[in-house]
């Protein structure tokens, strides 16, 4: 398996954080090609930080992230100015940047944008200003942009926060389609039932990786209790970490049964 | 002259200096308002005001070196304005301090230096020239400058239009797909400076901002999207230029303030009767639709 598809994202002795305080501490592992991975953990566990790191938004404090190929990233809190006079069509059309760049015409690509809007249930919304969309509709429009980006790897940071059940269902179907197309998806989520139902593998994070593997084996009562207990305190006087600066490359075992490391890391 | 429209346009027919003033102002009317549209949409309206002050020391240095010379003062203004804009932009991207704070810091330093330089040498009259411009005394080189700035602005806007819009709407997304965000932002700041320097020729530093922002804000009451905002703002600026110049001639008013006040009057009128959020529209609300 690993011979054909190199891992799209590999984390090597990764420490991410702010002001030298780690939010993700000494994380090793790889996101396999075609994986549908849920990122679970309490608030402050470092889920968003890890996704930002994978997307290349922040620099590593230690270790490194190896990326192969283009990555589409949907942040938890976007910086989108919704009062800007832009249509839904134009917002979704931004996803075509890699094909169209700054100058090539989008006129011929209009059907593709319309198809993407239809795929997220926004037919007939193309000419609407983005400021008039509801929260759920806006989220759908952002998913349309992700469709048009057409990236092999998609990172989603709490994509369903504040969204009604029907929209969540539609978007999960879309994610399932992406998974069937062989794309790699990593999503930070809080709804454990949702994770159990839709995500074959899970990384349970509490600054330290608690467990990483098949969802059923990660989301055990014991693991979840351990994640809750791991301190999320910001200690101003924290000592300088003396742990290994960079973990030696972990031997990869991509067997079907145990395809992940940190099954029981601490 | 009984025909009011004829008397309105008569000064332009009769006098060459009025035609020159009109040409200069119209050139500025097609380049400055689109910049103003983007500034207002980015909530950076007051940034142009700060920048107009930042130009002062450069122009003052040019004045000290070469006297009342257009090329020297223009070059000085460009250098000072670009330096402040680029420094503020660069510091913003390198630190966590927001752009408005950085810009405020740099423009205050620049303005103080400018006032100091002007007061070291030069009289009150020179200062008035700085502040209120000399639209009725535009020579060939000034017209070439205004025309060149206008052309450059429209071409540059066409080139950076798409990434500029993306940078305004969703800077995070642009950063994730392209490295053009930084250069585009700096290019836009440079366009702001270039247009303020152009406006400073015609209207003076204090009022250069007027022709940039007032038409742009007024256009918000008429148009819904960029495709409408930009032409409407240009049209409003052109009307303000023609009527401001004409009124300044007929009533012997200083021309720079007359143009900006004309733009201000158009803004107030737009605020009253504009179809998009105008006051009148709010008073007589049409019945809402069924769905």
What would your notes on this structure say?
The complex is a heterodimer of chains A (266) and B (291). Chain A starts with 8 loop residues before the first strand and ends in a 37-residue tail after the last helix. Chain A has a domain at 1-69 and 190-266: P-loop containing nucleotide triphosphate hydrolases (Rossmann fold). The longest helix of chain A has 16 residues, at 165-180. Chain A has helices at 47-55, 88-93, 97-100, 110-119, 135-149, 165-180, 192-198, 215-218, 221-229, and strands spanning 9-18, 21-31, 36-40, 62-67, 71-74, 153-157, 184-188, 201-206, 208-214. By secondary structure, chain A is of the alpha/beta class. Chain B has 291 residues and is mainly α. Chain B has one domain (28-269): Orthogonal Bundle (ABC transporter involved in vitamin B12 uptake, BtuC), CATH 1.10.3470.10. Chain B is 81% helix and 0% strand. Chain B is built from 14 helices and no strands. In chain B, helix 4 packs antiparallel against helix 5 (70-94). Chain B is globular and about 65 Å long. Chain B starts with a helix and ends in an 8-residue tail after the last helix. The model of chain B has no long low-confidence stretch (mean pLDDT 85). At the A-B interface, strand 5 of A face helix 8 and helix 9 of B.
| Whole-number mean pLDDT of chain A | 84
Structural class assignment of chain A: alpha/beta
The CATH superfamily of chain B bears the name ABC transporter involved in vitamin B12 uptake, BtuC
Q: How many angstroms separate the termini of chain B?
A: 56 Å
Count up the domains of chain B.
1
- Report the major sheet of chain A: 6 strands, mixed
Question: What is the number of helical segments of chain B per DSSP (H or I, 4+ residues)?
Answer: 14
Helix content of chain A: 25-40%
Name given to the CATH architecture of chain B: Orthogonal Bundle
Give the proportion of residues in helices of chain B. Answer: over 70%
What is the arithmetic mean of pLDDT of chain B? 85
The name of the CATH topology of the domain at 1-69 and 190-266 in chain A is Rossmann fold
Kindly report the greatest chain-chain contact and the residue count on each side. Answer: A-B, 26 and 25 residues
CATH-defined topology of chain B: ABC transporter involved in vitamin B12 uptake, BtuC
Which percent range describes the beta-strand content of chain B? under 5%
Question: Oligomeric form of this entry?
Answer: heterodimer
Number of helices of chain A: 9
Assigned CATH class of the domain at 1-69 and 190-266 in chain A = Alpha Beta
